[in-house]
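agent> Task received from the user: take the single chain below, predict its 3D structure, and emit structure tokens. No templates, no multimer pairing.
agent> Plan: (1) validate residues, (2) run structure prediction, (3) serialize to tokens, (4) report one or two observations.
agent> Step 1 OK, no nonstandard residues flagged.
tool_call: predict_structure(input=
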Amino acid sequence: MGWLEFVFKRVVVVLARLQQDGTARADIVHIVREKGKIQVERVVPDVEIEELGNMKLKEPTLLEISGHGVIRKVFLADDTEGMERVTGNGDLIHSSSSGEGGEVVLNFTRRDRIEALEEVLRRDRVPVLEMQVESESSDKPEEVALFLAERFYGTKAGWRDLLHGGTRGDLLAGLVAGKIKFMMLCCLLGLLLVNYLWNSSVRERYAGQQTEMFALERDVSDREKLSREMERVVREFKGNGTEHYCAVLDRIAAVVPPKVNLETLNVNPLLKTIEEGKPLVLREGYIELSGETADSGEVTVFTGALSELDFSREVKLLSLDKDRETGLFHFKILIDL
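)
tool_result: status=success, residues=337
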């Protein structure tokens, strides 16, 4: 099925009959196509041409002209010169059909005989897509209208008819636009709705990713800040000159009693906990030891051994506590070098 059959479910056939007095009358046949069948919807017979405007014909219109002043002439197929005298005359309107034995039948009339009819059609904006001339009027307008409608639908018109322009293309474009404008509006509104929903979803995901990115940036900033602080502490410890304490620490380790477990050995221990942005506060010239033992007397022995070392000016037992659960004694000793 061509797109004409899909877009245009109805067509109007105007069967105009030219009168001897120069006027015209017409039979108006409304054709409908439903379920693949073309049938007559209604017929308005014997209408004066001036009344066409009151009928508001907005569907594709097929026009047939017959009656007084229409001439029928048969030409042989090779008589191109004779046919040219008709078809090449701008003062004539004509239609051609095939006759018997390869003959060509031309029906034509003078253009000035249909000026009044054309004026009415232009004034009332009747969309005439096709026009043909017949020498004889039919007394069965329904049959003629059905024939013209079937031929119209059978042309299988496509989008090229619109692109080529011209009178027929312009009329088709206007009719198609009128038919599909509501559908196009619905499609546009649908696209706007989809765009709104999609845009909202994208915005939500974007906001979530922005929040996650800000959190990552804060985390990176905190890590960089911590790294800088660690570098500062390391630099301060490195500048503390602990290299010459190695021999001292070896001698301390040599006097640790067998029953004493030494846990920590801090050179220049901190006086205060590390605070952000503040310099380290150290107990310089001191060594702090901590450990545990099952016999408190071993702590006295260890303290005495440390006091006998020649580099220690003073050895002080800072604390000695017993763990009730394990029964072990925990001690802390400070050596003033």
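agent> Step 4: summary for the user.
The CA atoms of residues 2 and 76 lie 35 Å apart.
agent> Done.
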